[in-house]
From TrEMBL:
Residues 8-21 have a biased composition (Basic and acidic residues). The modification Phosphohistidine is found at H165. The lineage of its organism: Eukaryota, Fungi, Dikarya, Basidiomycota, Agaricomycotina. It comes from Trametes coccinea (strain BRFM310). GO terms for molecular function: histidine phosphotransfer kinase activity; protein histidine kinase binding. This is Histidine-phosphotransfer domain, HPT domain-containing protein. The keyword Amino-acid biosynthesis does not apply. One of its GO terms (cellular component) is cytoplasm.
Length: 241
């Protein structure tokens, strides 16, 4: 494996390296661009052009969240009796969930430039290397969310900050930009700092801000995971026996 592949893979697969560091407060102001730097060398000659996402200026809204198929509602004969009224779900909960999904569906869930750089590391159309990185990220993200929930229940803000920093880095490496951005907020709030407004936070304020973000980041991850799995299902060729 080349040095570049080894470096990128280790970034995804080594959670202990990031979790051991303690957050510092205050954190330096974020830069205007939180995307990870370029991870890959120029495309190797063995990479196949057809394996890349080809839009020169990709529309993240349309690419990151494939449209769901709609099932037409069945027609009801005119003579059919009126159905019994069902018990409506709580309006507030439905409204909050719909609003969150609408926000995420228009966000830049996947950074296609970074994802294409990861694809450049593949040696053939099987995409074995990048697919391995992606699967490792899925496992890592799910484990981190469990740890975040436990830390939140214990009001362990230092742990939340460390976990946010860790998942932010691995998400940036793969181009999962929506999760990256939300984890950066969790990192700063866990360090009792609101970087957007340039103010320090109390523990109560920090927990109040982190709670909704934990729900949001899990939904962003679900959208990103589906997008990535769909891409590999459509573009990765099966390995030869």
């Amino acid at each position: 494996m080349s040095p570049t592949k080894t470096t990128v893979a280790e970034h995804i697969k080594s959670p202990e390296r990031e979790l051991s560091s303690k957050p510092r407060s205050p954190s330096p102001p974020p830069t205007s661009d939180s995307r990870a730097p370029s991870l890959a060398p120029p495309s190797p000659t063995t990479a196949t052009a057809g394996a890349r996402l080809t839009s020169p200026n990709p529309d993240p809204t349309s690419r990151a969240t494939p449209a769901k198929e709609r099932t037409p509602a069945p027609t009801t004969p005119a003579t059919a009796p009126a159905p019994a009224p069902s018990t409506p779900a709580p309006a507030a909960a439905d409204s909050e969930a719909d609003s969150l999904d609408a926000e995420i569906s228009t966000d830049r869930v996947i950074d296609l430039d970074t994802f294409n750089q990861i694809l450049d590391l593949d040696e053939d159309d099987t995409h074995d290397f990048s697919l391995g990185m992606t699967e490792a990220y899925f496992t890592q993200a799910r484990t981190t969310f469990v740890d975040m929930d436990k830390a939140f229940d214990k009001k362990d803000l230092a742990k939340l900050s460390s976990l946010g920093h860790f998942l932010k880095g691995s998400s940036a490496a793969l181009g999962v930009s929506a999760v990256q951005a939300t984890c950066e907020h969790i990192q700063h709030y866990g360090a009792l700092r609101d970087e957007e407004n340039g103010v320090d936070l109390t523990e109560e304020d920090a927990l109040a801000k982190i709670g909704p973000l934990l729900k949001r980041v899990k939904r962003e991850y679900e959208v990103a995971e589906k997008w990535l799995r769909d891409w590999y299902a459509q573009n990765a060729s099966p390995a030869e026996a």
